[in-house]
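Lab notebook, bench 4. The sequencing result for the construct came back, and we need a structural model before the next group meeting so we can plan mutations. Quick request posted to the team channel:

Model the 3D structure of this chain.
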Amino acid sequence: SMCATEGGYVLVGDKASAQTTTDAWITKVDASGNTIWSRTIGGKESDSPAYVTTTPDGGILVCGFTFSAGGGQRDFWLTKLSSIGKVLFSVTAGDEAFQEAYTVIPAEDKYVLFGWTDPQGRPDLIGMRLYDFWVVKLGVSTQQVMSCFDFIWVAAILVIAIVIVAVVVAVIKL
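Done. Here's the predicted structure in token form:
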């Protein structure tokens, strides 16, 4: 993932090392692609970024998942860096199941993360690719699960919406 910043861009990805499986790799480049700063963050296990964006105060938010920290297997992971690459905070949200965050929206003094989780209360389904949509509102020291529902319902709603749009378009063409 990448996003525009003042004077350039920030890019995120995975970086393997001899000490860990993967860490989050974060690089800021100028408009010509020259590296301004670069760093890796993570722990002893896999830590992977999925999305990067900027904040109104000039900071950088990176979200994804971590196996190195948190309450379970694979947890939502949110890190905020300063414009010069200094880690300001790193927080997680999750339980004994797998979770992955795919985007984050700053909301005043909190952050809303969107992603997936294995079905709540069903440890027998961990890793079976039966995911629930998960929305979490995080503060630097707090977490609150806002919503969790089956992807099947999301898919059903999307299919219904597509059918309605198709019918409307067909009627308009008549």
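The CA atoms of residues 107 and 137 lie 9 Å apart.
Will bring this to the meeting.
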